[in-house]
Amino acid sequence: MPAKQIQLKGRIFLTFNIEAVTGLHVGGSETGIEIGGVDKVVIRDPITNRPYIPGSSFKGKVRSLLEKYKGLPLNRKIGDTFIHTCESPDNYQGCNVCQVFGVPGEMDFATPTRLVVRDVHLTEESARILTEQARTDLPYTEVKTEVSIDRVTSAANPRRMERVPAGAVFGPAELVYSVYEGTNGNASIADPEKDVERLRTLVEGLQLLEDDYLGGLGSRGSGKVKLQKIRVSVRSGRRYLETPQEVGEYADLPALVNDLPNLLQKVTVALGLA
Length: 274
What we know:
With 274 residues, the chain is α+β, with helices and mostly antiparallel strands. The protein has one domain (5-270). The chain has 8 helices and 12 strands. It has helices at 55-69, 89-93, 96-101, 124-132, 192-197, 199-211, 253-258, 260-270, and strands at residues 5-20, 52-53, 76-78, 81-83, 115-117, 120-121, 142-149, 156-163, 169-184, 187-190, 225-236, 245-252. It is globular. The two termini are 32 Å apart.
């Protein structure tokens, strides 16, 4: 069998802030909660005690939304969740979601995952406001009481949910998108120009996220977010030690979407593919 060969052609960096338009609940461990305390807690940094958004939560939500949007079969179970995974080389070559977000390592036809998503922490300004100005129930967070009603007895069952208040800002978030070139003999398995074009899929996922919600309790009002202060830069594989080249700066996601064809052209040039 011919040896596979893969080469990194460069990386694209997207950074932005995430504003919680409504209260945000990204769940954490509920072990050790006292009776009468919060039923559902948020995840916190163990050193600073500040809430944060895990990269896995952000990446998993965007992938899930794209799988539904594109109608992909949910054919692989991970824990209690079903996701889509291409199971053949032909399907994988045509699947932008699996190319961008990755497939399990035992799939020997796969190329490296394109997308890395970092954890996102509260900005220092938001942490200061939540500490000094906001009257929160817990450090940096509010407690929202929800009540379910028994349909037969009309008995109320209150539950206390922890959320980061609306208006809090997390950032800068960082998405690192790698562009590859490679072959397995005579057939191409990674095409850098196609990788650049697949950035459209990532932007689609971000738009789907803004129109949906992040974290839990979304159908009951939590988790609406907005991306702000978006910056795009490129580090070429040929000049990797040089300062990344800035190719785009946008106030919000609609501005990036409107400029997407122009942005993709700038990325192509910056990577030396044009």
